[in-house]
Amino acid sequence: MNTRVRTKPASADVQKIESTSPRQSRPRAKSGALEAIHKIAKDLHAVGAIDKETMRSFDASCLMPAPAFTPKKIAAIRKSAGMSQPVFAMHLGTSKSTIAKWESGEKSPSGPSRKLLEVVARHGIGILTSV
Predict the structure, then answer these.
(1) What is the pLDDT of residues 90-112, one digit of tens each?
(2) How far apart are CA 66 and CA 28, in angstroms?
(3) Which of 115, 30, 14 is nearest to 64 (CA)?
(4) What are 52-78's pLDDT values in tens digits?
(5) CATH 1.10.260.40 domain locations along the chain
(6) CA-CA distance, 51 to 53, in Å (whole number)?
(7) Fold for domain 71-129?
(8) Is pTM beyond 0.90 here?
(9) C-beta of residue 84 within 8 angstroms of C-beta of residue 95
């Protein structure tokens, strides 16, 4: 049996995956190598070779956390959605006072809230209202 070993660097495969992926909102990896490792783990999970708990471990170690948002950026996201603070808060599942504190810099959004803000920033508020 004649087997060929691929000599193309893994980063070229990752770039190809990134450029051809139909889902633009997928979580980004910390590096190209971690992106490749995460994809392999995801494929193994899809065929049942690794369990949910192990996949969560790969997610936690390979994927980047949601970005931090400045108060000005949060206000800009809300204004681009054309919403008041109370309406924006309702869509994010939080209170008007929380939105006001985020926009004044008194408080910062937590991880899940940062993720929601990232989704709204990328796809618009319609992504939350269409459900």
Answers:
(1) 999 999 999 999 999 999 998 88
(2) 9
(3) 30
(4) 888 888 777 776 777 889 999 999 999
(5) 71-129
(6) 6
(7) 434 Repressor (Amino-terminal Domain) (1.10.260)
(8) no
(9) no
